[in-house]
């Protein structure tokens, strides 16, 4: 884009298009300056150097406003001598004007940035210190010039501020009172809602617990009925299931978390396929794993109701290994968490 701009400037000048005095040189110098910086940034040092030399040949580079635009190029290329030369010249020009000004302070800020970019931190620190001193001088002069104005306004402002502080204090007190009232009302409403929700949850859990107990009692009655039936009246599968139920009641093998279909079949002295068939036929189509898990859940529910053991200990005593798995299947079976179940039993 810089090269296109230079070509366009040359074309305009060749066609004799009239522009204000110094326009072409200023535009050409600006394009060469930007081109030198871009080429240096891209690492094209020869092209950058030629662009910088072309810039230095323009009349714009010798003007007061244009001679310092090339500074970023010399910073990028590490030309410390040239940077210092231009910086000193810029400082000399600025000293002809008011040295306690934002323009003069900006000069030293720019010098500090240039020295920092060159790695000359000592001179960067000195320039920063100069800028701080100028800033302090500017602030001091401004304070002195406005001291009388502030003194005149002080009493009026003091009275106005006192009145505003009083009004603000009254408003703050009113806001605090309103806020406290709102907080109390919201707290009462929240507490009332929590109590209502807790009451509903307790009622639901009590009703659900009663239903569950009825279901468990019916299940126990069915198991007891089967256990009390003479073996002569039972089929081979029912007899095997009777032995399985008796084993679960008397020895509680399900409390061992390693119990599986093979260990159950081994304890009964039979094949696990026969065990699976007996459980499937007599326990509503349950698999051996579901059957064992069902006994574990029933035992866990009993412990929750009859003991004060922690839920983690209840889980381990019932033969479960994973707390998350225990909580999940307990909730699926009893429609409430172990904690809610224990509370319902109370």
Molecular structure report:
With 346 residues, the chain is mostly helical. The chain has helices at residues 2-14, 23-42, 45-57, 71-76, 80-95, 102-118, 121-228, 236-251, 261-268, 272-282, 288-306, 311-317, 323-334, 338-345. It contains 14 helices and no strands. The longest helix has 108 residues, at 121-228.
Mean pLDDT: 83
Helical segment count: 14
Can you write the helix and strand succession as a string?
HHHHHHHHHHHHHH
Question: How far apart lie the N and C ends?
Answer: 85 Å
Q: Low-confidence stretches at least 5 residues in length (pLDDT < 50)?
A: none
Question: Could you give a short description of this structure?
Answer:
Helices cover 79% and strands 0% of the residues. By secondary structure, it is an all-alpha fold.
What are the main properties of this structure?
346 residues, 14 helices, elongated
